[in-house]
């Protein structure tokens, strides 16, 4: 039943949505629910600290579990992914260091015509990124491995194809360039050795997969 206080109602009674998998109870699968430090305020009364303090990441680095650089690097990865799809407002990212559990509702691609730069705050404020992530992004910016082309080809195999409109696919390429520009500014300011963190995965595997 639709009420006036609901932000969205069906037309007339049906509403398109997404299917979510419910997690087991905490007794069966113990896990942590850790708030995203860059959560949005959703209020007209004020803003979150990260929205007004460009040095906010210095505070986050002192807070457990983000005092662990791996956790913070995972948050940066999440922000990059969210920016690519235009999805802001992710509220949590719990789970173990090696397997973060990223939670959000609802998942979606945002407007293709708008790039919400604030989603990249973890990257631009912390100025850190995994080397493998950077190499993959650089690879997907190459003409022969362009992200929109890779995504378009992948989605052709989906029973619901076409899943994304052409403007959404082209928005991926545009946003990818903005991410690389943000990383470039960080490197110019702090140096590559400080910004780009070595991780244990093998980036060569990504190129091998694309070559096949």
Automatic annotation (TrEMBL):
A cellular component annotation (GO) from this entry: Golgi apparatus
Transmembrane domains' residue ranges: none
Domain of life where this protein originates: Eukaryota
Molecular functions per Gene Ontology: ATP binding; kinase activity; protein serine/threonine kinase activator activity
InterPro entries referenced in this protein's UniProt entry, alphabetically: FAM20 (IPR024869), FAM20_C (IPR009581)
UniProt keyword Kinase, yes or no: yes
Keywords: ATP-binding, Disulfide bond, Glycoprotein, Golgi apparatus, Kinase, Nucleotide-binding, Transferase
Domain FAM20 C-terminal: 1-195
Subcellular location: Golgi apparatus
Residues that, per the record, bind ATP: 20-23
Homology family: Belongs to the FAM20 family.
Name under which the protein is recorded: FA20A Pseudokinase
Native species: Myiagra hebetior
Lineage, broadest ranks: Eukaryota, Metazoa, Chordata, Craniata, Vertebrata
């Amino acid at each position: 039943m639709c009420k006036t206080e609901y932000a969205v109602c069906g037309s007339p009674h049906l509403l398109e949505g997404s299917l979510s998998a419910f997690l087991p109870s905490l007794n069966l699968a113990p896990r942590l629910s850790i708030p995203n430090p860059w959560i949005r305020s959703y209020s007209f009364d004020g803003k979150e600290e990260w929205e007004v303090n460009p040095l906010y990441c210095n505070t986050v680095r002192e807070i457990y579990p983000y005092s662990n650089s791996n956790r913070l690097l995972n948050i940066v990865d999440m922000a990059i992914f969210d920016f690519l799809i235009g999805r802001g407002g992710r509220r949590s990212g719990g789970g173990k260091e090696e397997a973060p559990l990223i939670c959000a509702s609802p998942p979606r691609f945002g407007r293709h015509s708008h790039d919400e730069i604030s989603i990249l705050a973890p990257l631009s404020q912390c100025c850190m990124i995994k080397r493998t992530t950077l190499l993959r992004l650089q690879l997907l910016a190459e003409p022969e491995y362009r992200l929109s082309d890779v995504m378009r080809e992948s989605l052709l195999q989906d029973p619901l194809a076409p899943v994304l409109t052409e403007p959404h696919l082209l928005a991926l390429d545009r946003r990818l360039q903005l991410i690389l520009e943000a990383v470039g500014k960080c490197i110019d300011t702090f140096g590559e050795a400080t910004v780009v963190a070595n991780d244990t995965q093998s980036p060569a595997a990504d190129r091998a997969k694309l070559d096949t």
